[in-house]
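Before the break, one more example. Copy the sequence into your notebook; we will annotate it together after we see the structure.
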Amino acid sequence: MKLVLASYGTRGDVEPCVVVGRELLRRGHDVRMAVPPDLVGFAEGAGLATAAYGLNTQAWLDVYRNFWTAFFRKFWRIQDLRKLWREMWELSDQSWAQMNTTLTSLADGADVLFAGQSYQEPAANVAEHYDIPLVTLHHVPMRANGQLVSILPSPLARSAMTAFDWLAWRLNKKVDDSQRRELGLPKATGPSPRRIADRGSLEIQGYDEVCFPGLAAEWAKWDGQRPFVGALTMELTTVADDEVASWIAAGTPPICFGFGSMPVESPADTVEMISAACAELGERALVCAGSSDFSDVSHFDHVKVVGAVNYAAVFPACRAVVHHGGSGTTAASLRAGVPTLILSMDVNQTLWGGQVKRLKVGTGRRFSATTRESLVADLRRILAPQYATRARALGARMTKPAESVVKAADLVESFARSRRFA
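Here is what the structure looks like once it is written out:
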């Protein structure tokens, strides 16, 4: 079968689709990937034929971070927010248009079009244009439900998510209508989540059911259309792994701080804060720089700064993990069975922070609102023995990565065959 997988975002957004694509390729299928230009090398390194899709992620990451920082910290500065908002949507519209061109070419003759969590709308339009089955992959439960927004009663949370779908559709209506007109499709009359579900698409949930108690029961009415497979990750080794393992073994288990692909505004200030908080608590700190430049930060005896590491190998050797709340990093910390502190930089990450708090295996706070004092208080809280006990118990219930990818690939194959002969 010819399978086209399209994923947009940072490395954490793209990796789950690459994992599934690599497994489908291993099974003998003709697999084509579409990813952001600056991640083409990553996908090709997994052996996948890959096309550039949308803009470079670095073109919008700083704007994205600045918008959410301003939104949470200085929401009254309306002019600044409006300027950043316009910048974000201009970049989004440019990406959308480029995605349509790429997908229209790649998906011609495909048996299935598979879309990652971001920008499912243009992929859904192309799938409708060619009348081919659509598979979507979700890192969090983004379809309306009563479990994700844990601070609200279930009926209100479900209504809020439905309203958000409608708002997102209205905000994207101009570019959505333009794409559909170019593809010869009629104007859409409702939000894309409803259109995707109405076409009978397979909506794979790439996270563990155990992370959202009650969600499987709530979605039972979809009759297998939204299956849970667990988080999808390659668990790649890095050149720093052996050095980090030796440093960890030479002392007490550290607290690991990771920021993934989200750029930290001031690496120097961040390391100063981490160093001071850990010194007060008598802990060592391992700082994983991710995409931020930590090369000019101060050096402290109890703090080690490294680049990329294999989270699957490092997290279980730590007392706790502090990170930005990306779906992949959150899954890795939960699988490791250690307490988690999420210092979020956007809304999706904030939702994961609320979820680890709900599960009582950690807590969350906005990164922009974090100080040395709050960091000390949050770490003291999650380092309490009961958090470690609950984290270990939850970790034992998480799906193993090898099982997750087999489940996902089986679902895609089965869905494609059922739709081919329907």
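The chain has two domains: 2-60+91-231+401-420, 241-397. Residues 241-397 form a domain with the Rossmann fold fold (CATH 3.40.50.2000). Try to locate both features in your own notes.
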